[in-house]
Amino acid sequence: MTRLRKSGLSRTAPLVFLKSLACLLALGLGLNGYGQSDVVSQQIATLKGPHPGERRYAASQLGRSNDPRAILPLIEALKDTDVQVQQSAAGALGRLGDVHAVEPLAAALDDPSLDVRQAAAFALAEFKDSRAVETLISATQQSGGSIQWNAIKALGKIKDPRAVEPLLAEIRNKTSLQRSAADALGELKDPSEIEPLIADLKDKDWVIQHSAADALGKIGPLAVEALIAVLVQKDQSALFRVEAIEALGETKDARAVEPLIAVMQEPQFLFRSHAAIALGKIGDPRAVGPLIAALESSGLLRRGAADALGDMKDPRAVEPLIEALSDKDWGIQRSAVTALGKLKDPRAVDPLVAILTSTSNPEVCREAANSLAAINDPRAIEPLIATAKNSVGCPLRVSAKALEAFGASAVQPLTAVMEDKNNNDEVRAAAASLLGKIDDSRAVKPLADALSDPVSKVRQSAIQALVEMKDPHAIPPLIATLVDPGASLKAASDEAVATIRHTGPVDPPIAALMNKNFKARKAVVDLLVTIGPAAVEPLIAALRNPEPNVRLGAAEALEKIKDPRSVEALVASLSDTDRSVRNMASSSLSMFDPLAVPALIDSLKSPDATTRLEAAWTLGFIKDSRAVEPLLGALSDKDDQVRGAAIEVLGVQKDVRSFSPLIACLKDPSPRVRSGATFALGRLNDPRGVQPLLAMLNDSDPAVRRAAANSLGKLRDRRATLPLISLLKEPAALGNAADALGEIADPRAIRPLIAACAVNDADERQSTIKALGEIGQPAINPLIASLRDSDSHVQVCAYKALARVATPAVPSLISALNNPNKDVQDYAADALIEIGDSRGRAALSGFLEKRKP
After folding, report:
1. Could you give the C-alpha distances from 309 to 182, 289, 528, in angstroms and in order?
2. Taking a C-beta distance cutoff of 8 angstroms, is the pair 316, 290 a contact?
3. What is the pLDDT of residues 543-572, one digit of tens each?
4. CB half-sphere exposure, 298, CA atoms < 13 A
5. Cα(299)–Cα(202) distance, rounded to whole angstroms?
6. What is the pLDDT of residues 283-317, one digit of tens each?
7. Which of 156, 340, 713, 828 suits a disulfide with 187, CB 3.0-4.6 Å?
8. What pLDDT was estimated at residue 33?
9. Is the separation of the CB atoms in 282 and 254 below 8 Å?
10. What is the largest CA-CA distance in the chain?
11. Residue 469 buriedness (CB in 10 A; 0-12 / 13-18 / 19+)
12. Residue 660 burial by CB count (10 A; 0-12/13-18/19+): exposed, middle or buried?
């Protein structure tokens, strides 16, 4: 019999249930809106889609929708073919908390997938519906701790009496879930569980005893009378009574006070100390007198009494606890110290200070420092500082942590400690750190002064303190370390400045931009960026600063802030006398696309040639079609650099409107312009450019001829083959001609390219090798033949080109291994090794075997 049948649900129940749920939804739960094109409807549609990932996401989103239309689709998704979709659907139903999902989720506890069962159990834990009880009880027996834990948790929430016996059984099973079962029984608070739990207090297994006591304590008032009955039976086992005492303390019920006070009079110390602790938890004033009296007793009872008096926070306990501070037992001292900290009575300050400064026990010292911090009386500050200096009983960190709690009251004393160079370096650094944690503006100046302290630890602590304070007044001193060329704190303070959100004046960080240290300047730029719009106007003014580094940093900051107000000023910076500033202004403006385009177009008409030049380059970065016509106009600029820039930018734009103007520029008197126009025509990829470019192969300037070769290669027109072969004879243009011939891949170029391998320049030979490799199959036989050339450059060129041809060359290279010429054999072998083809490796194996001496 399956767990589903045990729970009273048949296998067909979910189908019947879904039909009834559909009717309910249509009648009263808003299904009329199902067809609306809103987000929920879209997610429901996605939940039925083909992609598991999208279905999982849709299920998760529907769980957050709080829309009743999601219930039925999510219930259907519990049967999805994807386990993760099922899990998401279960989780979503748990979040929605609709009672109609209980039975389908209960059925999912029988799913073949452990992951789905766990998800269903977790979801059911969110419900308080009794229909799930039997199924959840069955789930407590399933394998998989998560399923059991969630089932137990759900049973505690539902509070159904049927769960009592299974949960009691779980406590007795001695599993890792005993504590969870005890918690659930505590939530149930069912009278029927009290007697069995009392019986479990007598079990020989301590874990069962403790779990039962835990449950009884959580049950609270219902269990008090039964627990008191156990308490008065003095003939019971010691652990039995101890667990009952602890449970009574957890109930916090006043009826337990008198019986527990009575236990404190018994001779057995174990019962007395536990009774004292339990009374402290209950907090009834009637227990104060007996607990104070217990401070005069001995052993564990005194510690328990002190702890209890601290929990009760009754002022009557202050003087007795102060007297306990003089006890020779450090455990009693510690308990009394802790209790006085909880009471927070000023009368305890001087006695606690006396303990703090005299004890050699670190635990007592720590608790004394903590208690003084809790009382927060300024009288304790100086003693805590003295303890920090000495570090005899207390470690420095203990005193430091306590001093932090005093806040503003500790600022002046801590400042004095930090400034006194006779103090230990560690103590001074700790004082600086504490000033940062206290976060009082009075500490800014002394911390700023400490940035020049001769002790490294103090300086570093001061930096971190100023950063931690995030006070705008901390900015100038930190920036001062960046501006000062002799400062030794740049590496630390550049990070410090960048972490503070600046709310003060902008001038100090702008002044810091003059620092020549790149990291420091970058930190200041980052800081200015965090200031945002408020920094824009000062940064615009900084673009006119006489110091280039300031102008450079201002342009960089404006690029990152991206405020439209800065466009005009950045355009003006295109004429800056410093190239780095001009480049940064150009880069910044390119980030404003399309806002900067009109201003840049206007700048093409500037009387300043540098401005026109930078405007042209910047428009090239932006690539806005509005710039084409103005750039075409710039082709007639009187400055050849501007004309050259406009040409290159138009080439990048690849706009057909540029073709005729670029053809006209081929006749420009400036080689720079002719070269740029030649190169740009190649980028346009217009076949009309072939003839004009062929003519440029005869230009008087070698740079123009090289550009023409490059562009003809890009056009891949075989009309250029013979002219380019002729260009191979020109040493300055050989590489460009070879590259172009490789792109055209005309077989007529093979032998001229092989012949060109004889040149001494390695870069030029590399271009011919590449070109021959790109021509490919037609080049194989000529290259094989060239392996026996008398020129070693040609031989090497041939074998490397064959290696670039790769796979198609393998059969010919294998045949060449049998060539009578040894050079041919060796170069063929080298090519095969580079190609790495399996056929070549097999042939090489036999070849090398034959070549063995």
Report:
1. 29, 10, 56
2. no
3. 998 988 889 988 988 988 888 898 889 888
4. 3
5. 27
6. 899 999 999 998 888 767 888 888 888 888 899 99
7. 156
8. 40
9. yes
10. 121
11. buried
12. exposed
Residue pair 149/177 in contact by the 8 Å Cβ criterion: yes
Rounded Cα distance between 813 and 833, Å, is 11
497 half-sphere exposure, CB direction, 13 A CA radius: 34
Cα 249 to Cα 308: distance, rounded to the nearest angstrom: 11
Are 272 and 301 in contact by the 8 Å Cβ rule? The answer is yes
**224, 258, 709 from 254: Cα distances, Å:** 9, 8, 102
User: What's the CA gap between 708 and 786, in Å, rounded?
Assistant: 30
Q: Is residue 341 a contact partner of residue 367, using CB atoms and an 8 Å limit?
A: yes
Amino acid identity, position 665: C
> Is there a contact between 450 and 462 (Cβ–Cβ < 8 Å)?
yes
C-alpha separations of 820 from 240, 651, 751, 843, 850 in Å:
104, 53, 23, 16, 13
| Structure token digits, residue 470 | 């995030």
CB atoms near residue 834 (< 10 Å)? 15
Q: Please compute, for residue 816, the number of CA atoms within 13 A of its CA located in the half-sphere on the CB side.
A: 29
Q: Which residues have a Cβ under 8 Å from the Cβ of 694 and sit 6 or more positions away?
A: 708, 712, 719, 720, 723
pLDDT in tens, 674-698: 988 888 888 888 899 899 999 999 9
- Nearest Cα residue to 177 out of 124, 139, 120: 139
* 3-state helix, strand and coil shares in percent for the chain, rounded to the nearest 5: 75, 0, 25
- Cα dist from 230 to 244, 271, 832, whole Å: 7, 13, 94
Residue 2: count of CB within 10 angstroms of its CB? 10
Q: Render pLDDT for 14-56 as a digit per residue (tens, 0 to 9).
A: 333 333 333 333 333 333 343 433 788 888 888 888 888 889 9
Q: Is the pTM of this model over 0.70?
A: no
Q: How far is CA 502 from the centre of its chain?
A: 24
Q: List, in sequence order, the alpha helices (H) in 716-761.
A: 721-727, 734-744, 750-756
pLDDT, mean over the chain? 81
Give the C-alpha separation, 359 to 354, whole Å: 8
Which residue in 117, 181, 126 sits closest to 157, CA to CA?
126
- Nearest-10 Cα torsion for 310, 313, 314, 319: 50
CB 252 within 8 A of CB 284: no
Give the Cβ contact number of residue 594 at 10 Å: 9
In the structure, how many helices (H) and strands (E) does the chain have? 55, 0
Residue corresponding to tokens 């549609």: 45
Distances (CA, A) of 695 to 463, 647, 707, 749: 69, 19, 12, 20
Contact 106, 5 (CB under 8 A): no
Least confident window among 225-229, 357-361, 364-368, 410-414: 225-229
Q: Alpha-carbon distance 593 to 560, whole Å?
A: 13
Cis peptide bond upstream of 564, omega within 30: no
Class of residue 73 by CB neighbours under 10 A (exposed 0-12, middle 13-18, buried 19+): buried
Residues in the chain: 853
Q: How far apart are CA 357 and CA 379, in angstroms?
A: 13
